[in-house]
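Exercise (ungraded).
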Amino acid sequence: MRSLIPDYLAEALADVEADVSGEPAGYIPELAAADPDRLGAVFATLDGTIYGAGDIDTEFTIQSISKPFAYALALADRGFDAVLAKVGVEPSGEAFNEISLEDETGRPRNPMINAGAITTHSLVGSPDLDPARRVTRVVEGLSAFAGRPLSVDEAVCASEMEEAWRNLAIANMLRSHRILTEDPRAVVDGYVRQCSVLVTARDLGIMAATLANRGVNPLSGEQVVAEPVVRQVLSVMATCGMYDAAGDWATQVGIPAKSGVAGGLIGALPGQLGIATFSPRLDVHGNSVRGVSLFERFSSDAGMHVMAAPPSAPSVVRSHRAMGTGADAVRVIQLQGGIRFAGAERIVREVADQVFPETTVALDLTLVHSIDDVARRMILEVARRLTLDGHDVHLVDPDSILPDPDPGEGGRVTVTDALAGPISPGRTPARR
Amino acid sequence: MRSLIPDYLAEALADVEADVSGEPAGYIPELAAADPDRLGAVFATLDGTIYGAGDIDTEFTIQSISKPFAYALALADRGFDAVLAKVGVEPSGEAFNEISLEDETGRPRNPMINAGAITTHSLVGSPDLDPARRVTRVVEGLSAFAGRPLSVDEAVCASEMEEAWRNLAIANMLRSHRILTEDPRAVVDGYVRQCSVLVTARDLGIMAATLANRGVNPLSGEQVVAEPVVRQVLSVMATCGMYDAAGDWATQVGIPAKSGVAGGLIGALPGQLGIATFSPRLDVHGNSVRGVSLFERFSSDAGMHVMAAPPSAPSVVRSHRAMGTGADAVRVIQLQGGIRFAGAERIVREVADQVFPETTVALDLTLVHSIDDVARRMILEVARRLTLDGHDVHLVDPDSILPDPDPGEGGRVTVTDALAGPISPGRTPARR
Amino acid sequence: MRSLIPDYLAEALADVEADVSGEPAGYIPELAAADPDRLGAVFATLDGTIYGAGDIDTEFTIQSISKPFAYALALADRGFDAVLAKVGVEPSGEAFNEISLEDETGRPRNPMINAGAITTHSLVGSPDLDPARRVTRVVEGLSAFAGRPLSVDEAVCASEMEEAWRNLAIANMLRSHRILTEDPRAVVDGYVRQCSVLVTARDLGIMAATLANRGVNPLSGEQVVAEPVVRQVLSVMATCGMYDAAGDWATQVGIPAKSGVAGGLIGALPGQLGIATFSPRLDVHGNSVRGVSLFERFSSDAGMHVMAAPPSAPSVVRSHRAMGTGADAVRVIQLQGGIRFAGAERIVREVADQVFPETTVALDLTLVHSIDDVARRMILEVARRLTLDGHDVHLVDPDSILPDPDPGEGGRVTVTDALAGPISPGRTPARR
Amino acid sequence: MRSLIPDYLAEALADVEADVSGEPAGYIPELAAADPDRLGAVFATLDGTIYGAGDIDTEFTIQSISKPFAYALALADRGFDAVLAKVGVEPSGEAFNEISLEDETGRPRNPMINAGAITTHSLVGSPDLDPARRVTRVVEGLSAFAGRPLSVDEAVCASEMEEAWRNLAIANMLRSHRILTEDPRAVVDGYVRQCSVLVTARDLGIMAATLANRGVNPLSGEQVVAEPVVRQVLSVMATCGMYDAAGDWATQVGIPAKSGVAGGLIGALPGQLGIATFSPRLDVHGNSVRGVSLFERFSSDAGMHVMAAPPSAPSVVRSHRAMGTGADAVRVIQLQGGIRFAGAERIVREVADQVFPETTVALDLTLVHSIDDVARRMILEVARRLTLDGHDVHLVDPDSILPDPDPGEGGRVTVTDALAGPISPGRTPARR
């Protein structure tokens, strides 16, 4: 059977191909000379499968799509406090090249506008890096997101620097507010190099998938940045990624996204997918015309909106019964599926305010495939409380799906492989 | 066992209780007279369980928390186009009472600022409703979200009207732009009545849970508004709900939310939970001081951030084997869990570019608990393509988890209850 | 001989008549129905001569041209402090109907924008006037400027009120800031009546001439408002009178001016002339197209720019000589012309650091036609110092051009009609 | 007798000396180190007399006071159109260092804010000047205004360049809009040199007097720039010279003015006086605290407000009678004083619509001291019309106060020294 996803992508491209509105960015010759008809789209799954159609291996400069990734690197390298002290997270409702500094402090409103991105660039790496080594750190960081070594397009870079007046204006303004503390020209030079990194739609798909995959590159398996960093980056992309059309995008598409002036556009759907498109024709906001159309279609066709509730899972309590009789009687609660807060609440409700005659209460996790941290803590608290009520609590957990099963003060659980009995005495955790 | 969730809520309240910063809103005597020490919090699950601690049955006026619900009603009553023509969806980055109209059109930036909310009020119900009946429709609509009949606090309403200068200013400005087409005073009067509806934290919890539950009230089971309306409302809450601190909230809390000047605060976590808090002390943005603290804690403790990827589910392909031999050989692909786009893609990948010697290919859905629409369409397309490749395709679907199993042009599936054979000939769908 | 000024005006009108660009204001039927081809111009001298050409007796509504006069009335009735506390004097650089309130206080930027004009209207008369009597005061005040009883066009007034949404918005906003303390609708109603007062170009010429003439109506001789009020009004007209084109007007025309949406335009050249034009076709700023052209021409042809230095007067010291000999010798300094600070300085210089052998020093004012207050004080100080140096000081002042000739502490002057001797002993002022 | 003006100035300084509020500018060490107690004031008359009190010979840097003079040089060197194409004339209502560029074009709002002043600097001299020679031209131009060779404080200049981030930001922004077409750093460097020119209060007094004196330096007699340039500069100073307090200054002081951050402040009263003060303590607007107080006092004491009408002159028609009888009868109209438009109108009125039986009409200019251009043209037109009515027109003009006495088409005048007869046949002008 031929896979239907490439077909779907090909069909989507065919539908938008007729739209020849918009023009490639014209402010430097290298961008103006881009073939306006190039068109490609990529879906990158969290286990590293790439689906593509059209021009997915054509190289172009990453431009503003570098912004969320450099922001991730800065957060990782300097910590949240240091970065937030210099760059805000509020939507500006303004175009990408508005200065948008806060009145008193001169702090840029967010890292997606140029002022914030220039500042962010200066915050990558340790504070003592010289400009050249900081660029190296940025390029290596972007490469880690892409899963292959990326390089800078020197011709684009040189040409951009010749027309970088506005960015130099912004950097000098930031310098006057002490948001930048170095030579503004050197920072802009580094930032322009960051924007001139060459990528393909395939690379961008992987980079987006790394964000969707909690920071783990699906190809290399490398944890490029930590999960809280990814959450911060996605949040900022969701509110500030599409400039002055942020609200339209948030309602109609609903995928955290970022566009670049060379025609790239990425979206990351947390836990599901990385998406990238490439088409150099831009609309008045500087976003790729056909890229925006494709994302609208993907969101609509595939139900990818972050505000769409996932379909209901069945109750995590698959069954609840008493087994055996007398002293051997066991209260067995069989759980299933993935358990987050709402599922854990359901478990709590199953046992709260109940009096079980059986001494042993077994929580059977055999059919459970995942437990997040809050759910883990809630289940252990249930176990602790049942212990305090006089029960022996068993966790049937053959796949060790619940890590570190210590219920804490006064609690005690016996972990078993099956309902029959304990896996081994050693797995009864001691209170540490 | 005593449920731990009320304990958790009580503990959370105890922790924030010491914070006596901020003051109740003081612009009218009724609000200024609020007991500043009132404090309550509610978790409302999507199956209608209410967890509460503190003052969850104290009545107070809903104020701006009515805005997302009235927006939902307007979208439901007039349609998206009519509402979007008059109220935008862009974050304004400004305080709630800024006028924030678009330059040319006078269209308010979004429905969460007063200008947008006044306009939204005027768009509830059919265009020919008189002001009084429109208020009735609004109150009934809010009641449907709450699951009980709500009423207006006439004293607050009268007092608000006496100080409604700024809203009258906004309404007259909207009238001058033809965004409003009626008497501005009548619209403001209706809007003030909307804001004066009395609710409890318990009500707000249910209202939030209705949003989290795709528009279905967990108590009454009523589909109050359609799912696309809910998605739109949640998107706007996410970007515009917390006024000029929208970005802080989006990054730190990450729950679509809305606050009211009487001290209420709601959050809706799609597919998981409705949350409400009540504490009348306000910060400089007009948000409840302790409410904000509670939400920060809930988000952090319970991993409720919308940009946090859910924990990985196991592969939807549980097993894949050939059963039997010769003409009876069947290729069985056993699926499990909930299937959305990413899961369906995994199924596609399992069969794409493969040649199966067996004539019959069975997709066993027995352990699948949910399939969303895109996944359903993808599975059916897989079935269609396998048919075209010469296979007999069986769907083992004892619980009819996949509705309307028609693979379309050239495809054919046989639906069965078990691997053994078809459930009934009648369930083999014909091409319509 | 036929006067050339009407010819000049007629010729100027003929030159601009061909310009049919622009349209009458269209927001109410009464203004839209104005004959767009009406055209008139008036020069009103400070002694009450009216030169006119074209439609100078056609009535139209005064509209915004009422603003500087109502501002004058408010300053006169309430004092500078009370008015400045509620309305600023800063150019807003914005269109007439921008709200332009100061951030914190809500104080309108200046009295020429609508927000400031509405506030100004509320400040005319004593604070206890009811709205109707305040309108009476305003109409009577405008009539005093015009020198004839003016009346309100009730049809325009009623029509304006039907479309007064924006002004109602502004008034409610002002009410919310406590800049207005009354019912906003009543204030707007009064303001609209003020704007609906009927005038002719002839009336406007006299009104402008009253401003140019230090507040004295050239026809009636009435001091309508005091001179400091006029100075304030002219200053505000100079910086804020032409809205967002204030700087263009200040540089190119240089005459304090004010336009109205019904086609009127006035200019006041302090000490020289009042000018008015009438032509209903408006440009995009809402100023009369042909009125602006006429003023540009008048300024250029007649050297009327306030920043153009007047032609040099001859030295105020016409001659300086010693007359007679011995004890009868007199030092005579003959002065001439009008004396202000610069002229008085010249007198000071004539006598400073000199030692005159003559006992008597006579300052001969016979050819002096005016002395302003600073010059008067300087001349008396010269007299006082000469007295202290041992001189007898004579002022030869047959026309009593120098009032109250008391040189103060230690000084003494003898006022005479002619060089020969004292006019009368009685005119030697005693130290009071 | 001792001159009272130095006494007045000394007394004024003594009164403000007690005010030690404010601090010298602190952004560079050289300014921060200024002696905060320095205080001086200068009155410079249009015939070159300097009155001074206090520290009038202390050198300090001219800073922003260079702006109006550089603007004058740019207008003189490039013409109005070229300068207005790049720098507007609208008040910005903003602080001096706001960027304030027009939205579309990037044109600075006016030449008094830094963006406009940097652009203005780039427009001094011919377009092909290199930056160094442009600075030479600027310094020479400022020297011409001051009447002595000025020089640059190299230490201040170097220090300013080290902190010129904001000006570099502005210059790069201007470069991005093609308002500047050169290297932004070079332009800022030149502008900083312009601001670092050393002056004394005495110099500034002369510079201001040059503006007050139609561009003629009272000391050197040099016409530094043409009169229309001066009018433009004074107009812009009047509306934009005091930044965000422009309206306060225009109403309360009413003297076109400009301040500098080193403590200087100038005012030019057209046709009367140049004023300068020096006191380094600055208020929050960056204006000299004591300088502002002194100007308020000068304006109030000396009636120097540009919107104060000059005192009325006597009628320009001193007498009007018929002399002689029969064929020798002459109608004699004796004029006096300075004649501008309003005076000429009075003459017109004297003869218009009259029928004089005398053949000869004599306009006696003996007592007239000045006639401006419009008045000259009006008098000649009167003469022409009287000729056409059949009169012989004589101008009695012993001092040739009326230049080029050609009444044009059909007119004819005989110029005489005295009423008796023609000065010479040669002075009867022929029609050219």
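Further reading is listed at the end of the chapter. For now, observe: The first strand of chain D starts at residue 40 and ends at 45. The longest helix of chain D spans residues 131-146.
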